Amino acid sequence: MTTDSPDSFVRSFTALLAAKNIDVASTMISDDCEYDNVPIGKAFGPQGLRDTLTGFFAMCDSLDWEIVRQSSTGDMNSAVVLNERIDRFVIEGTTYELLVAGVYEIRDGRITLWRDYFDQSVLMQAFQAASS
Amino acid sequence: MTTDSPDSFVRSFTALLAAKNIDVASTMISDDCEYDNVPIGKAFGPQGLRDTLTGFFAMCDSLDWEIVRQSSTGDMNSAVVLNERIDRFVIEGTTYELLVAGVYEIRDGRITLWRDYFDQSVLMQAFQAASS
Predict the structure, then answer these.
(1) B82 vs A62: CA distance, rounded Å
(2) Chain A positions with Cβ closer than 8 Å to B
(3) C-alpha to C-alpha distance for B124 and A100, rounded to whole angstroms
């Protein structure tokens, strides 16, 4: 992975997660990585990533996370990457679109921060529909 | 303003608005600029900016919008700027902190898109407190 740029690293990470490949995505984050879903809460490290996403991924028939805009500063030793995404996910045949802005920090070749900003009402609506 | 970089241009724009200086900030956006508060709605152009912010600014004793991280791509002819902010505002003596991610596009020396991602629950809480 040493040939990656911060830009391509975050794109790969995002694509792996949208493919529900938590195993490989987990190798791209640091042991103490902060994973912060701003309106909901934080988790830490590979296990935190897994705990947060496993249940959600199990609910989803499929996911498509589109990066609309992205800008990065720095290199794989130390970088900030910010993006704007449309996180699409299908639950019981219904497609939901979550409009998201993501903030990432990279240190020593791994993601040390992943923070997503969004309005939680869309997510709550999807969860309620899925549990009804 | 031709000596500005996209990075400094957005920093100036943000500081002007936090100082409630809509008049000067308005000159930095295009006539058809899209101003999108994602969970709430869109407004367009200098008048839309004014209509959206005048009432809010009137409620606020003071504002302090801190840019925590920012990254930009391009130049003043065509650029994308993304940032992470803490928008602090004081209403009736109480300080609120709105955690925001902003997306900006610049074309031909002016801001043509300003889109803010945040969870609206903090904002609604402040508005309810102010109107009670």
Answers:
(1) 28
(2) 38-39, 69-73, 80-84, 99-103, 115, 117-121
(3) 20
Q: How confident is the model at residue B2 (pLDDT cuts 50, 70, 90)?
A: low
pLDDT tens digits for B89-121?
999 999 999 999 999 999 999 999 999 999 988
Contact A83 B81 (CB under 8 A): no
pTM score of the predicted model:
0.92
ipTM of the complex: 0.89
Radius of gyration, CA atoms only, chain B: 14
- Mutation target to probe the B interface, by most B beta carbons within 10 A, among A68, A85, A119, A121 is A119
Q: Are B9 and B28 in contact (CB under 8 A)?
A: yes
* pLDDT tens-digit map of B6-28: 999 999 999 999 999 999 999 99
Q: Do B117 and A119 touch (CB under 8 A)?
A: yes
DSSP B103: E
Least CB-CB distance to A82: which of B38, B83, B118? B83
For residue range A93-105, list pLDDT tens digits in order. Answer: 999 999 999 999 9
On average, the pLDDT of chain B sits at 94
DSSP B61: S
Cα distance between residue A125 and residue A130, in whole Å: 9
